[in-house]
Amino acid sequence: MTNQDISHYTNTFRVTRPHRIVRNRPTVSCSTCRARKSKCDRQQPCGACQKRGHEDTCHFEPALKQQLASSSVGGNQNGIRIELRQMQHVLEGLLNQSGQTQTQTQPIKAGSQLEIPCHQLMESINRIQHLLEDDGRPRVLNTALDEQDLPDLVLASFSKATIRDIIEALPSRQVSDRTISAYFNAKHLTVPFIHTHQFRRQYETFWGDPAAANLLWVSILFSVLATGAVVLGAKAACISDPHHHSAYVTMSARCLVAGQYQKATEFSVEALVMHVHSRSFQRSNKDGDMSQLHAFALRLAQRRCYHQEVDRLLLTITPFEAEMRRRVWYVIQYYDVILSLEQGLPPLIHEDTFSTCHPTNITDDDFDEDVICLTPRPTEEAQSMLHCVYISHLLPILRRIIRHALGFKTCTYSDAMLLKAELESWYASISPCLRIRAIKDTSFTDPNHTVMQRIMLELMYTMGTVLLYRPFLDLMQLSNPECQMALNVCRRLAVRSVGVYVEVDHEIQEGGRLYEDQPIASGLSVNDFLITTIVAPLEFFDCPNLPPGEEDHIINLLQTATQLWSKRLVASTHVRESTRLLRLIAAKAQTASQGRRHVPYPVPGSSTGAEAETEQYGHLALQQYPSGEEGYAESDIDFEVGLIGWSNDVEIDWNPANFCLDFETVNQAMSRNPLLDTQ
């Protein structure tokens, strides 16, 4: 065959296809008519579908080629975004190498010898990224998925809130202003990531056009109203009141659902964490619900990189936004520890899984959205943010103590002492302005929220110490000095914590210093009291040798606390369980005291009686005050100064600790003992 014979076959076997003109014509037939290859009259529904009774399946969908074209455009946009991120990384590297500040620039010479500052290039890249995100192109392939809402397993019981529902649920502007003002004035009930001045501007914008507001921000507004309602309406509020705390919490959840908080958009983390905070005042809620909400908030925060410090992110974040992110992460850590203690579960956050720094000791009046540099305040000033900074430094220590107390890994006494050293170092770092002191000895110029912050810091320290020693009470014999130390410390701190609660209750009565702030004082978390009451049965069951000279005070204190908590049985299940335990403990202690034969208490040296006891106890000794009418000594505890004077000569049977957890058996024991009758 000659070349002339095969010349007309050369184009047939080429690898490349011949160029063809592709015309993406608009769809003119419904999907049913295209499948049947019948004529369509282009109505909705068309005549052919009406005749066959297929009106529901008559849809006009774009052609496959248009879908493929849209997907290819999306792929190109993803490639452009990757290139922009690489350019952004290179520019930030140049800025870091030059060592210049944000206002200084690094010139880049182009072919035209035009110098363009690096920060202007960064702004241009950010603008291009925003244009790519909001280019307005139709996303054909994702339309069905976007319109279909995924099931909400956390807030499934709440329906979506509409604009009409929001307007109807809101109080009047005057009532709303007063409620929000009450929230921000209750300093230790506020969350630090709600900036006062920024929220004020957003609040004014909302009232100007409520329909245009972000639904997630509206959820934050209802959570703020819910917490403010606790402060204002705890004395006379009615559950049926439409402006009651629970009504605001419900609207907060409905706005979360309507705003699609699961998508991790703007305000999603803040709105969900604020909802958890406002919901924490409803003690009737199940802890499981709170735990699920918190776990979801933690994952949302991680998706938005709240667990990473700003300098490690390729994002343009202002110093104001960076500080707000730190404060959000702090609140998430705080509730992680609190919920872990309530449920006896390990914390979700670990030290090696985040790099976010501690919040800055700075008030809302010291910085705003236009701030360039954050200047911390001195720690000698007792302002609202200082106690958050101290708690933020305590949380990593508490997480390790909780894991130690749960006993997942074998922890020796020396390991516990290392944790104790860290806890003591933190306690020693607390500024004198936030040191615990008797409320009656507090300066008249100190605000009440500062008093409550001092108490909370002391109770969290006490809780950590008790948890640290708790595992050794079951594993060791009383002949072991380490067990004696653990038992003595837990006894003393348990009594001291009960005394703190008794004094707070005394001060919130009519005529007391905290009477006007009853909602604030009653908002003390019961977690610390729960921890001390868990340890308390081990301190007094079958232990007839209470410290000489203090047995009457201890029994009186326990009975007072029993009566105190008996009045609050409707508050929560924790209060009911604590009341049950206190009744049994007080009865056992009084029974042991009545049958005790006093034995001289040996102390070293020539001192005798109360002087010797005070000398050995040091500043740890409790002052003798009846029923919480007096104060307690300022705590500066040093556990290494010998053993505290509790007699451990008698072998203790630890079984009653488990016995007290059996509610039926406890009820029988209380019914047989006349000392347990509610007064």
UniProtKB/TrEMBL annotation:
Keywords tagged on the record: Metal-binding, Nucleus
Q: Name one Pfam family in it.
A: Zn_clus
> SMART domains from the entry?
Fungal_trans (SM00906), GAL4 (SM00066)
Establish whether keyword Metal-binding is in the entry. yes
UniProt subcellular location: Nucleus
Which Gene Ontology MF annotations are present?
Answer: DNA binding; DNA-binding transcription factor activity, RNA polymerase II-specific; zinc ion binding
- The record places domain Zn(2)-C6 fungal-type at 29-60
Which CDD domains does the entry link to? fungal_TF_MHR (cd12148), GAL4 (cd00067)
PROSITE patterns this protein is in? ZN2_CY6_FUNGAL_1, ZN2_CY6_FUNGAL_2
GO BP terms in the entry: DNA-templated transcription
Q: Which GO terms describe its cellular component?
A: nucleus
Report the superkingdom from the record.
Answer: Eukaryota
- Main subcellular location: nucleus
Task: List the protein's name.
Answer: Fungal specific transcription factor
State the organism named in the record.
Answer: Colletotrichum chrysophilum
What is the phylogenetic placement of the source species in the record?
Answer: Eukaryota, Fungi, Dikarya, Ascomycota, Pezizomycotina
